User: Fold this.
Amino acid sequence: MPELPDVQVFKKYVDATALHHRIRDVTVSADGLLDGVSARTVRSRLEGHELAETRRHGKHLFVRVTANGWLRLHFGMTGELAYFKEEADLPAHARLWLEFTNGYHLAYANVRKFGEIGLVDDVDAFVEAEGLGPDALGLDRGAFREALAGRRGAIKGTLMNQAVLAGLGNVYTDETCFAAGLDPRSRTEKLDDATIGHLHHAMRKVLAQAIDARVEMDRFPRSFLLPSRATDGACPRCGKALRRAKISGRTTYYCPHDQERKG
DNA sequence: CTAGATGTTAAGGT
DNA sequence: CACCTTAACATCTA
Assistant:
């Protein structure tokens, strides 16, 4: 479920495993996932080089290739990474995998074809050209208020809009609204400053907690909504039944008792 | 068998 | 014009 916290965990994973090894071989099996590059170009840009550092903006992961720009990975709804030694451990639906001279492999796998693999020369230029908003973890309260200014409609939709701020998807938008005690149907244009401040605080806390838990469900704080979606559907705060509704086009879970409509 | 799933985006609407 | 909403995309699972 790759939203900002998941991608941040992938980033740390690459940092801890796959950097500074010479790439001996590259395999691309990514029909339809390649964004503006051929498999041949991806191979030639990577082979013989090393992965040097990583960056993340929203749900995009960038991995710098020594002297050769950045590999860009987007995980769509089902993308993941795996670092492993034996070829037998190659994940199902691997779309791109590198073999390093130390004998290990790094694979990008994706069941569905909603992700993207690309090459970019300049990360900031890419973010600009794509029209991505500021990273959800990299903006303070003032910048958050600024980002929401002029936006209309349900706060749920505003928070999920990558042009407003980059990184929140369906799950963490619900989690943020729950942590803030705010009804996800509240109109963005009608929220007062104090509410927006609370929302910003809740968002940062939720994202940090999810990353600390390495996005493993059983490590999440008890206060989180996410595990209840899959289990009994009871609010972790008051125990009453969560409501499930279609808001801003996505299935949304919230607690009618604990989340107040403000706008 | 059908419906729905974490994401993005084209097309249509306000 | 700028922004919002909806449906569709590919594939798997409940």
About this structure: Chain A has a mean pLDDT of 96. Chain A has eight helices and ten strands.
